[in-house]
Structures are given as C-alpha cells and as structure tokens.
Amino acid sequence: MNKWIIPQDWNAYGPAEHTMWDTLFARQVALLSNRAAPAFLEGLDVLRMSKPGIPDFTELSQRLQKATGWSVVAVPGLIPDEDFFENLANRRFVAGRFIRKPEQIDYLQEPDIFHDVFGHVPLLANPVFADYMQAYGQGGLRSMRYGSIHRLARLYWYTVEFGLIRDGAGLKLYGAGIASSAGESRFAIDSDSPNRLRFDLRRIMRTKYRIDDFQQNYFVIDSFDQLLRETQDTDFGPLYADLETQPEIEISAILPTDQVLTRGTQSHVARGSVDWNSRN
Ligand code: PHE
Ligand code: FE
Fold first, then answer.
1. Backbone phi, then psi, for 6, in 5-degree steps?
2. What whole-number distance in Å separates Cα of residue 186 and Cα of residue 238?
3. Which domains, and CATH codes, for the chain?
4. What is the pLDDT of residue 274?
5. In terms of CB atoms within 10 Å, which of 79, 132, 233, 247 comes out highest?
6. Predicted confidence band at 272 (pLDDT cuts at 50, 70, 90)?
C-alpha cells in the first residue's frame, strides 16, 4: 500500500541540513574506501547528485531505475511491517526524510535519511542485491502468514543491516547499519572483539540481536550470489515450523557447528562502548 508515502519536500531542507549530509558523507567515504565491499563502493556513485547536499529522491530514483528498477520514496518514520514488505516487493525503498541534528552526529536511535540512503541505496544499484531485497519483501509478506516475521527480521538484521562479506579482497562490510556508522564501520572490520561466523541461514533465524550497541557476532557471506541463492532456493515454510522446535541462540554464542572465521575477545562488551569510542 502506498498510504505512508509522503513528498520528500527537498526544497524545505536548510543549509545546515545539507552540510550535515556532506559532512557525514565525506567521513564515511573516507572510512569505507578500504572497508566496504567493492559493490557498495561502486553503488556510491548513484548518490553523487547534480546538486550538493541531501539527495533529491526524484533524481536518485531516476538513476536507480536505470540501474535496477528500484526507486526511493519518503515515509514519516517506521511503518507497519506489511507495508514495509509490500514496498520492497515492488522495488520501492522507503526512507526517512529527516536528518540527524549536530548533537546526534555519532548516534541516534531512529534511522534518519543518512542511514536509509547512504547505508541502503548503494547496494540497491547492484543487480543481485536488488533481487535479494525484492525477494525479501515477498518473503516478508509470506512470513506473516506463518507468524514468523521475527525469524525473517533476524535475517534482515544479520545481512541487510549488519552483514559482512569475504571475497578475494579479504573481509569487507556491506550492511547498512555498519556502513552508515563511523564507529561500527571501524569496529566490524578492525576490532578483535566480535566473533565473525560464516553465514548460516537456519542459525541466523534462531539468533537474537542487540540494538543498543555494536554487534557481538557478525555473519559473513562469500558473495551476494550465495546470499540470493540460499535464501531464494529455500522454502521458508517448513523451515519456520522446524525452527519452532529449536532453542534460541544468544547474541554472542559460538556453537560447535559454527564455522568460525575469527573468534572474538568480546573485550568491547566487557569494557563498555563509551570506552571503545573514546579510544578510537
Ligand atoms: N524463499 C523465501 C520463502 O520461502 C523467501 C525469501 C527470499 C526470503 C529471499 C528472504 C530472502 O519465504
Ligand atoms: Fe536500515
């Protein structure tokens, strides 16, 4: 349903808001050049608009349409799951239109336009990832009929938001929650604190996640093709039923069946997030 979509009202942004975008953009580009997946860095080009400052969704959508048929539309904030899935299933990415205030530059609770657009849009220009996001939306609508949205939400969290990828170039980030965060883009790649485990669909759908701090476990895919194949070729219906008989997995657990790429010290948690941020 389109009932949540509102005009972006690009002309209403003031100079301070455009400056905030430019500041965040420059900072993240510098941090990501050697940390983000090549596909993410290539996709950043669609964000280089003809006007400086916050991207105008009209121009942005024209560019994305050309690349993969996706568009970006503004919504007032978080919208109901069904409407979120419905938009994804139709290749529409819903984004907030407000930008964080200067005092929120390093942390805010609600996703703003910088997270939504800088974090998510680059990979929507990648044909394989673009297909994954649409399939996810269709799968989301399906998950509602099984009462299993929470399992699918975990898949989104550990891939779309906090996913890592390991390719010829080594370990790289692609998740939007990492890519839009100065602290977490360093932490996810450079820190010896978190565990990095090989992507495992069933395992992820049993795993809790934390929203209040950097992740303690990251899941690493080999390629976007692998991610699309393994999720699209699996019928989640029987999987959802089967997972109901399995115990939940804690946010920092390592199981005997996990393929561990790096075993973390978890020192960040022991030390507390304020400490880590101030040291870096
Ligand atoms: N194959 C999933 C299902 O049967 C749909 C899906 C595809 C979900 C890709 C997430 C990502 O519901
Ligand atoms: Fe997000």
1. -125, 160
2. 38
3. 10-278 (1.10.800.10)
4. 42
5. 132
6. low
